[in-house]
Amino acid sequence: MKEAPVFRVGLDDCDKAHLGSLGFVLRRYPSHAVIARQGDEQDRIFVIRSGWGCIFTELMDGERQILDFPLKGEFVASRAFDGEAPESFIAQTELMVFEAPAKALLAGLARSPNLAAVLLGAIARQRAILVQHLTNLGRRSALMRTAHLLLELGTRLEKANSARQLGFECPLTQYDLADALGLTAIHVNRMLRELRERGYLEFRHGSVHFVNREGLERFAGFDPGYLRLPGES
Amino acid sequence: MKEAPVFRVGLDDCDKAHLGSLGFVLRRYPSHAVIARQGDEQDRIFVIRSGWGCIFTELMDGERQILDFPLKGEFVASRAFDGEAPESFIAQTELMVFEAPAKALLAGLARSPNLAAVLLGAIARQRAILVQHLTNLGRRSALMRTAHLLLELGTRLEKANSARQLGFECPLTQYDLADALGLTAIHVNRMLRELRERGYLEFRHGSVHFVNREGLERFAGFDPGYLRLPGES
User: Fold this and answer.
1) Which site from A12, A69, A220, B80 is most exposed, i.e. has the minimal number of CB atoms within 10 Å?
2) Which of B139, B152, B177, B233 to mutate to test the interface with A (most CBs of A within 10 A)?
3) A155: helix, strand or coil
């Protein structure tokens, strides 16, 4: 199945034709399928069409550190341009992704500076997300970082028109959150209870409900500027 | 002063001419100068010629999380392609950097797929470094992450021909290391003492000496594959 990914940005018809010519193929992965494994040769790039992805590093002792959960419309490129994947990429839920060979993309860049700006903007946004996750782990308390991540995921889904201001469907377990937040699942459980008791949010039955979003954003020091999409004003 | 940065990769003469035409300007910053501040409009890209840089996020409570110390030959792009800087960039030591407008670079990409591959490779490498720092904070013990960072910095300097296998000149204080490792300076001090007592390394008078590098790499789970330069086999 061939189809081009849609970026929410100002591409003209000529750029869209270039994008369509890059050889993106739409593929479906069942939940928990491994799409790329850390250390394997990796020469594809991906754009999520629907579902939740998960990228993580695996440590020698079998632990994992989740780096991010790529969502609808987002780009997964990691080290596609020269060799082995520095991280694993799996389907957190059933996942539809556009895939293209990294080399085709390089050729595409050469044909359209607009497309190059969009691509580099998308890569920079994914990097800015990693930077916030790093800041979460290093300098935000367990409670603040739990709040910050949930606010971020909600905001990203809103920008992809997949969530409302009030909350979002969240397929993550407390184990997943723990591996993303550098905590144990028990600790995450306690943090979610405390966020509920403080009247900030409720997370149950696979759904996050922001009870007091404004207060939560203030508490977590959450400034959504880094989630601006390429071309978004 | 105009001069083009040298990437250690397979660019042909034509690519080098393209690189030279992108408008890189060599600038000198004194130690601790602010080159780009978080939240400011940011439309430049940088390649370090000599010295140590430092990129970090500033939190509302005045704390900072150091993301990385960009070194000789390395690329600093963060969010140069669409607006405000998500992080601050300062000179850790006196710093010589090549600067170019991000827009000129986009035009350059369009002229040479080779150059585009080198640029994307350099961005991907800086991202792989962030990923390891994130993994340090989330899933490596204080002792392991201290060892991992020092091994990484030594390896990066070696690849830039600025260090030997035995060790490297290191201008970082224990406060800098603390802000990079998510620890306090007192904790870093204890970790450095423990690494010395275990016979792994000595860090004093601004110099890191690897006493037992092989053992240290094993202990820290350090695999230097992610530091491969674009085009390096």
Assistant:
1) A12
2) B139
3) helix
Q: Which tens digit of pLDDT belongs to each residue from B81-113?
A: 566 788 999 999 999 999 988 887 777 777 777
Choose the closest CB to A81 out of B65, B77, B124.
B124
Query: Which of A115, A96, A93, A97 has the alpha carbon at shortest distance from A106?
Result: A115
What is the fold, at CATH topology level, of the domain defined by A140-227?
Answer: Arc Repressor Mutant, subunit A (1.10.10)
A164 touches chain B (CB under 8 A): no
In the numeric block, which tokens belong to residue A228? Answer: 């601006």
Average confidence (pLDDT) per 10 residues, chain A, 233 residues: 57 72 89 91 86 95 94 81 80 95 78 79 90 96 98 96 90 97 97 98 96 97 89 70
Q: B13-128 domain in CATH 1.10.3720.10? A: no
Tell me the residue ranges of DSSP E strands in chain A: 25-29, 34-36, 44-50, 53-58, 64-68, 75-76, 88-91, 95-101, 167-169, 201-204, 207-210
Host H or E run for residue B24: none
Domain at B141-227, CATH from 3.10.50.40, 1.10.10.10, 1.10.101.10, 1.20.950.20: 1.10.10.10
Q: Quick: pLDDT tens for B184-195.
A: 999 999 999 999
- B182, pLDDT greater than 90: yes
Chain B residues near residue A83 by CB distance under 8 angstroms: 228
Quote the tokens at residue A171: 């397929």
Residues in chain A within 8 Å Cβ distance of B8: none
User: How many angstroms separate the CA of residue B49 from the nearest CA in chain A?
Assistant: 23
Average predicted confidence (pLDDT) for chain A: 88
Residues in A closer than 8 angstroms to B67, CB to CB, are 131, 134
Q: Tell me yes or no: is domain A13-127 CATH 2.60.120.10.
A: yes
Q: Which residues from A are below 8 Å from B69, CB to CB?
A: none
Domain residue limits, chain A: 13-127, 140-227
CA distance, residue A86 to nearest chain B CA (Å):
6
